[in-house]
Design a protein that fits this description.
The protein is of the alpha/beta class. The chain has a single domain, classed as Rossmann fold (3-Layer(aba) Sandwich), CATH 3.40.50.450. Helices cover 44% and strands 15% of the residues. It is built from 6 helices and 5 strands, in the order E-H-E-H-H-E-H-E-H-E-H. A 5-stranded parallel beta sheet has the order 2-1-3-4-5, with helices on both faces. Helix 4 links the parallel strand 3 and strand 4. Helix 1 packs parallel to helix 6. The chain is globular.
Amino acid sequence: MTDSPSNHNVTWTVYLSGEIHSDWREQIRAGCESAGLPVRFRAPVTDHAASDAAGDMLGVEAEPYWRDHKSAKVNAIRTRTLIDQSDLVVVRFGDKYRQWNAAFDAGYCAAVGKPYLTLHGEDLVHALKEVDAAALAWARDPQQVVEILRYVLADS
């Protein structure tokens, strides 16, 4: 492995899926910037209230289920498009909340053949065994993601 990023002037697009309650995205961005890696990051809407309201322009719903249903579909327009346009997807599972959307994103990646890696603690290994089995790597912390990107973007 070399210490320098690729000189091919190719910028990778990496979609950062999953948990929105910690700064893991910022850690990966900062690590890649510090390493000089040619990476462009994309992500879902990380403002929880805005994401929940994504379908509100389609009309007020009396039942919370239908509001969530509409918003999930509108959010899926962004998510699927950005995943499809990405070279790699990082799917983060946090320990505070269940990230069903992250699991769905991983399944979508597996179904369409999009390379993805998972990012989560050891306490979730058993719960995510099928998701990890289809992933190309499992990272335990954001710095490991940066190191994977450093490796895959290095000149051979």
